[in-house]
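Weekly puzzle thread! Below is a chain. First person to post its structure in token form gets bragging rights.
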Amino acid sequence: MKEQLHQDMKEALKSHDKIRLQTIRMALAAIKNAEIEKMHPLTEEEIMGVIQREIKMRKDAREQFSRGGREDLVQQAEKEIQVLESYLPQQLGDSELEAVIKQTINEVGARSGKEMGKVMAALMPKIRGRADGKKASAMVKELLAGA
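Winning reply:
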């Protein structure tokens, strides 16, 4: 994935795509910082985690910009999110995510909201990089409340 980022950065530089170039550079810097922090080259899964963190930061920023009435910055954050999401695996749809959650609830044998932690611990490795954790958490809570 790191190789792909470097390749895409070169292409963005040649095509003068400033937003894409800037976003890829920020992602590579975040990956480099994570490697320095962990003192080893990152695995593909760790790189996906860094990219997801970058997406989450931009979504939070987008909310702030929206509240502040800065539509220009909202648009930029939106474009950056699209660039970063292109490096993640295909996201699960709502129905697919719900099916995975129901299967996990059955595997764990959870019966109430008190067992949400157990369900989330078993669920996250299955959906990492393919679904938003907040969304999954809300769905788990809803399904356990109905159980």
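Puzzle host: Confirmed. Bonus trivia for everyone else. Residues 1 and 56 are 19 Å apart (CA to CA).
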